[in-house]
## 1
Amino acid sequence: MSQGVSQSVSHSMKPTASHWLERIRALTLPAPVRVMNVCGGHERTITLSGLRTALPEGIELIAGPGCPVCVCPEEDIHHAIRLALDAGVILAAFGDLLRVPVNVPKGEPRSLVEASAAGADIRAIATPREVVEIARMNPGRQVVFLAAGFETTTAPVAAMLASGQLPANLSILLAARRTWPAVAMLLDSGKPGFDALIAPGHVAAVMGAEEWRFVAEKHALPVAVAGFSAEGILAALHAVLTQIVEARCALENSYPEVVRPQGNPIARRLLDEVLLTEDANWRGIGVIPASGFALPEAWVGLDARHRYPMSEAVRRRAGEMPPGCACAEVVLGRVRPLDCPLYGTACTPRTPVGPCMVSDEGACHIAWSGGVRRAA
């Protein structure tokens, strides 16, 4: 097998979604195929574009672990809530973290939004630069940044740290995760539940398409990096299905206009030089080896866990999903949103029980937005 990444679409070609559907329908698959799409952005395009209903029978698309908010450690969100309420800090976080519920006794604020309603100073931000500005404009107060996300949002956090111009009143509660180790865990389990993989284009843009070569070479499964349009996803789907028809396994790049084999060298260097890699907890799933980013000892003064230590000994169900919630199994692609007994009953976007119903990248929220409801 060539060590280069196969470019399945040239820069000059821009086939339509209809074109790719025709090519997919022309394939003769040897058996039903299950394809996992790792990214929540892919799942949103697939659902809202109605791609599942347009595909031939025998092709199943499965949502995978591409929702960083869904797997953000419950204990970190609880820590942030208590800091905002008890320590009087300004708590900044990306917007889709604000409504994620945690396990607390009835009557206590169970999300950052509820903490805000109880008087806490919670700020929704879109970039780390906004956090630095908040800290500079409030020199008399402590500011804590709950930084959750995958490589695409963690690289700007690393750039912020590398700038060396951070206000003394700023600290970081880092809950960032690496994408590929979760897929590796599924594959190493021996029962991954899928026959091919569509890899996330935005993560590959940072880390490089080559990061996903292990899927083909170690686990003998077809894999293709995809963009975020319907035609981009269908191009990647056609690439992996063609491999199945031809009985081969390879890494293909169906997003060459953005993704390079080695990714973005500046972003990768920042992640490597500024942050450490460690075993990390994924909510409801457990600890996945080498799946988390951590602050090195040199940055201990910026570490909110060090600056504001909090005991978890008195909490019950710390780190778990709420009772009856199947979010962890949904994230791992083992069940569909409709398989969760709470979906559409106790758990809706207006009254979310689990994090998968909160985030724009959560499979349950996406399914609901796409009109997926229980039969009467």
## 2
Amino acid sequence: MADIILGIESSCDDTSAAVIKDGYLLSNVIASQQVHKDFGGVVPELASRAHEKNIVPVVSQAIDKAGIKASDIDAIAFTRGPGLLGSLLVGTSFAKALAVSLDKPLVMVNHLQGHILASFIKQYDSENRQPSFPYLCLLVSGGNSQIVKVSSPLDFEILGQTIDDAVGEAFDKCSKMMGLGYPGGPVIDRLAKLGDPKKFTFAKPHIPGLDYSFSGVKTSLLYFVRDRMAEDPSFLENNKEDICASFQKTLIDILLDKLIKAARQTGIKEIAIGGGVSANSGLRERIVLEGKKRGWNTYLPEFKFTTDNAAMIAIAGYFHYLEGERTPLDVAPVSRMADF
């Protein structure tokens, strides 16, 4: 008998619902919020209000697009955390109410697990390449930069992580500092394609082990632009493509240096990436290049699975459901989660 999982994602500013049947994606609906661009970042109160408005039509549309009835659902997977507490509360409350009304079990999901397991979302008429266990996942987003060893769908070990800022945060803050807009990652990526990545040099941290640090490279860029513009007020405008290309290359170098080290230490050649920054074209190209050079099997999620989406929550929930895990109705959302 087929297992049908409804996934609900509301950790930040995207309201999403998806339906997966035996691991195959039937639907994935996302309602994005544009209002935050005016503020240069996500405003939590506005985000939770938008979730309240969007969640009913989004879930309804996901069920309709999947070609099923609500009663066909076997379990409801939802994001418990980490994320914005108000946003998570909307998704969690709705998932509970729906579970009670349908008399279906709940399965809570760690949002980060969803990103890590995005490579296992199967689609009809697709190749559906999936990493073999164990594999290493470079998890990169606005809130996280980690190297995770994945030994099974429910067995995760963090080998290294940022000790300060996440790489996505570095993209966003430096884009804002240069007046390029929000979100910063896509803007810098677009401009970087037009620039020379070797034109300028920015400081790289020397952190022992497999941990990351991105605060220093942000400071390096800040001082660099400040000093150059003191000499020439038009410097930033005349060199923004080269600055973006050089800055992006520096961040990718930092990420890949530790990933290469982790692969060497563990002997693992199955390498995946996940999270919002995994959509960065420079990072994707570099991962593939390093994979060919080092004999890795590399797995890049489709662009639609790099951002926050319910398909990844549904697939993670599917694995938890198969293991017999169920979540009680008194569970509360959490903005931070200590581990996987």
## 3
Amino acid sequence: MMKFLTTSPTSKRRLRATLLAGAAVLAVSGLGLAGLVNMAPTPVFAQSNTAAAAQFMPSFADIVAKVRPAVVSVKVKLEAASMSEDDGQDFAVPDLPPGHPLEKFFKQFRDQGKNGKKGGPKQYGMAQGSGFFISADGYLVTNNHVVENAVEVTLTTDDGQTLAAKIIGRDPKTDLALLKTIDNGPYAFVPFAAVSPRVGDWVVAVGNPFGLGGTVTAGIVSARGRDIGSGPYDDYIQIDAPVNRGNSGGPTFNLNGEVVGVNTAIYSPSGGSVGIAFAIPSETVSSVIGSLKDGGSVARGYLGVQIQPVTQDIADSLGLADTKGALVAEAQAGTPAADAGLKPGDTIREVNGEVMAGPREVSKRISQVKPGDTAKITYVRAGKEMTAMVRLALLPDQKTAAADPAAATKASPAFGLTLAPSKDGSGVLVTDVDPSGAGSEKGMQKGDLILEIGGKPVSKPADVRSAIEEAKKDGRKAIILRVRNEEGTRFVALAFPKA
């Protein structure tokens, strides 16, 4: 279960200390017994390696002393209506029978809740996170989810000062926010790292877990490029330094005291640290925060395509050598992509000379290009590599088309799909899906609109059946459908049953 790291004062009351002294004694006793039984001398090279390891084990004290003054606790005043369950503010009032000794005691809490919901005095709560200064004049970084519903923001520095702050800008897509103190400082601040950390590098996290400000933990970079499903531009660093609720928005440092990431989420079945934490990389943070500082928002390049991964079935259907790149499911009319000639079925392989592993890389790279600048798009169409120079636009509001069901339905003979013509003739509507059919296995659902099959537009179920029969006669192993629903347009490759 993914958990964001904002916490509240009530979370402090849930802390429990676990004593491990007994386990430590048992472990030492066990080692002692093993030493008595195994009397063989330790090889010289093993002794040397052990001594070297002890000599080079890092101490983080100098780094912590340098960076901790720049890290703050972020306290946020929230209206009760905007507080989530994760804030820990809900109080469950038991349903007691009349005359119960505790009825009067709990009634006051029930009445307070009713008053808040029926226009009584506004109810407020508090949430807490972390942040860090990036300039001497009081600009600082935290997570968007820490401050997005804030009525008031205050900061507590490492030396105990309390500072008022205001929100300069927020970017929900990357979960970042830029704050500014009311007082201009000066304040201790920390720089962003110019070089990305490697997997296996030591890192140090500083923050405000469970309201325990100034907490320092250490670990290594466990992985890079993690997609945790939190947004369209996921590209997290995974670390094993223990972070918990309240660490949201806090920095992770390299051994030079430079910020390599902003702690944002943890994976935890229990809600506490299990050694899997995710931080937004410093290169993303630096770019987004720069835009927020300049204009209060982030301007991203817009290509105007809906894209999807290239599966092996799709690669076989289109004659592609591998599954790299992103398949264009739709090039929306009037967008830079359509104006540059991109079409459904094209496979984007490179953006500005960088090879794209999949759709996530394409989206991220396009978003990094400023609106109005030109991007070089390399793509494959019908087995031929082509290039388009596309001048990107600003991301506009998008709408999705809906299809109306028709009365008559007919079944597709091969894939377990029940079909009907759409009301406006824009495609063929899927009105039912056999759970055991090939269509269901590929994620097709009731309400999907089939726009094309085998690269040809369709407007009635007979068109679908004809295309299927034609593909079978040609000896093809699969046929590709272009499908639209409320989530967008995509390609679906359906394999024919083996004889």
## 4
Amino acid sequence: MTSVTNAEAPPRVSPGRRLSTFFYRHPRLRLAALLALPVGWMVVVYLGSLVVLLLSAFWDTDPFTAEVVREFTLDNFRDLFERDVYRDVAWRTIRMAALVTVADAVLAFPIAFYMARVASSRTRNLLIVAVLMPLWASYLVKVIAWRTVLSSGGVVNWGLEPFGVQFDGLSTVGLWLVFTYLWLPFMILPIYAGLERIPNSLLEASADLGARATTTFLRVILPLAFPAVVAGSIFTFSLTLGDYIAPGLITSEQFIGTVIYQRRGENLPIAAAFAFVPIVVMILYLLVARRLRAFESL
């Protein structure tokens, strides 16, 4: 009697399984394949378009046809430094960004402190939702709503009318109020995260050593939370510096964003040269924030 033993064929491995095994054995290639699409999109679409825009700052325009002439020149930057109007616009924008940042820090710190150190867990969760809720609404809708509130027949002047006071809301002061409201959540959340990470043992040690509440706040809490304040200021400062929609709807004053937006069609090289101003300002601001250890709180 003859017995025939048929050897079983090895199971076939699918191409997907082979590819998965290959990437498992080569973690660097796996990481490269994972980041190829987003990094490629950022380099080509975002950074590429930004480089082309900034490159046009070194071009000129034909005085008769107003068309861009691709010849290297530094006249655009010379105009920015020599003409008072550009210096005034740049200073007005930087000043507005600084005032908005200070106002948001003053308003956000007590709110974040209550959320992180005082409120119960349930109240804390409700406050976090309340802070995030304005971000769910459209930016444009919020600005237009504020324009209605600050107008001559708006709620603000309606409330001030019995006192005989008239407030010109569609002004630089009104824009400051709008920016302060818009970017406040971006200041609250980093400060809240920084305060929440402060160990309770440090506060207890300060109390055991006889320090009063004010001393503990000034010498323990505030120094530890200061990098978080600087981290929040990066958002408020940069967002104010580059915004052009709110200034165009709230006030007739010119800011860097509105000038760039208006000049992009009639004089692209000067608009591109002016775009260097907020970039340089933010680079310097980020260098200062790094020295203050702000990135440790992000």
